[in-house]
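pinned: reference chain
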Amino acid sequence: MALEVVLPRCRGFMCTNAHPVGCETMVRRQIAAASRDETARAGGTLLVVGASTGYGLASRIAGAFGHGMDSVGVFYERPASERRSASAGWYNAAAFQRAAREQAVGAWSLNGDAFSREVLGETLALVGDRLGPLDVFIYSVAAPARTDPETGEVHRSALKTIGQPFTTRTIDLMSGRIETVTLEAAGEAEIASTVAVMGGADLRRWCEGLLAADLLAPGARIVAYSYIGPRVTWPVYRRGTIGRAKEHLEATAAALHERVARSAGGSCRVAICKSIVSQAAVVIPAVPLYMSLLFRVMKEAGTHEGPIEQMLRLFDDHIGPGRTARLDAEGRIRLDDLEMQPEIQAEVMRRWQRVTDANLNDLSDWAGFARYLRQLFGFDVPGVDYDRPVETDVALEG
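pinned: its structure tokens
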């Protein structure tokens, strides 16, 4: 066992390494928030694709430790090497497996490319062997590129507007200063490629695989995640290339819902989530400034939520045993209801108009936003001794 002191190594504002103890501490805190008396756990079976970070990880924790569900988690993470630590997602998954073993909750993990036919086949075999038909299937994959499993073509997403360039304000994550940025409009090929990566094609492939293998239990609930956000971000998000992909995801889920309802008496829904700090979200212009303002306003109102609070509400109020999902007019579950309250949005927009470098820390939670970003990699976690050597080559069991 080779111990080492792990300090953050950064490329720009992103860490290229992760702290195993910091990651485990964050996972354990989510587990503590989700855990309830065993007599209150109804059990069941759960598959989460994209289970190592963000909403996917929180979904698996909420299902396993809130409801006692046996689970399979699929993700694509990097183990440790002689040159650097494992990825944060690897340490998150390893921490989840250890906690599940300690509490005798069934948990199996598969590390590989969820876009590939091989991983889909391996997952179907693992689910069939360990879980049987699924009560809940969560699809929470976020990736910058996707290799089409049928054609081998590599598609890459583009973060651009559609129609006209868009100029907005954001926070430079390196300097912490407000700056103006302009996004160029995407071409048709870039739009199509973004839809191929982030749209509903792979959700359809996974659902069809589960249906063909008869691995959806009667009444099975399938959920994929999306985001709408405020109008100030729509030109770059909802009405940009990402938004076009999300529209495709929602249309795909609606079509799959009809098939799942006929075949298994179940459902396939999109859940619109609240904004959270993630590696994917923070690179979207306008979003860091908006989130910093939003977090401050919601904390002042006592309604701020992280991933685990969102996913506990999803399971407790919408998709858990005996629950009936509450839907909006488009058939979506709205977990962003607290974020989008009119009084919250009005105050955020009031501050958006007023915020400058001079008053950024007074009007926003920029410091908290930056801390959340570091905590994605296990750094700046209260209670962790970063001067203490730790083992970075952590085994992923199960």
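why pinned: Residues 354 and 363 are 9 Å apart (CA to CA). Residues 8-145+157-165+188-284+304-337 form a domain with the Rossmann fold fold (CATH 3.40.50.720).
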